[in-house]
Amino acid sequence: MAKGKFERKKTHVNVGTIGHVDHG
Fold this sequence. Notes:
Blueprint: H1 2-23
């Protein structure tokens, strides 16, 4: 459970960063 949650959080942050940079 912890592993899955951590992976999901990491992916969310990665997507958010890419989207932010792309928008910028």
